[in-house]
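Figure caption, in words: inputs first, then the predicted bound structure.
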Amino acid sequence: MTQPALQLVQGDRMLTVQRDWCKGCNLCIRSCPAGILSLDDGERIVGEGIARCSFCGVCAARCPDFVFTLARVPEAQMAMGGPQ
Ligand code: SF4
Ligand code: SF4
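Bound structure (iron/sulfur cluster present):
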């Protein structure tokens, strides 16, 4: 089943997680300094306590399948209340 992408936004920073692309290799889970990543029953990445994410980018650097993308939220979007 297709999994929707997750988007975490804090201030002007945004982490997008393309769960569909996850192969369950565990690399990001072992590397996340906040310890907030794990696999669900379907062996796809999930984040718990995601408010502790520091947007360090380690997960994006480690994932061989480009699941994570860090970006700045454009000011125009923030003025409208964040990404839609
Ligand atoms: S950006 Fe850093 S703290 Fe946030 S999920 Fe990725 S590795 Fe963990
Ligand atoms: S590194 Fe990428 S493919 Fe591996 S478990 Fe993490 S999100 Fe999934």
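The first strand starts at residue 6 and ends at 10.
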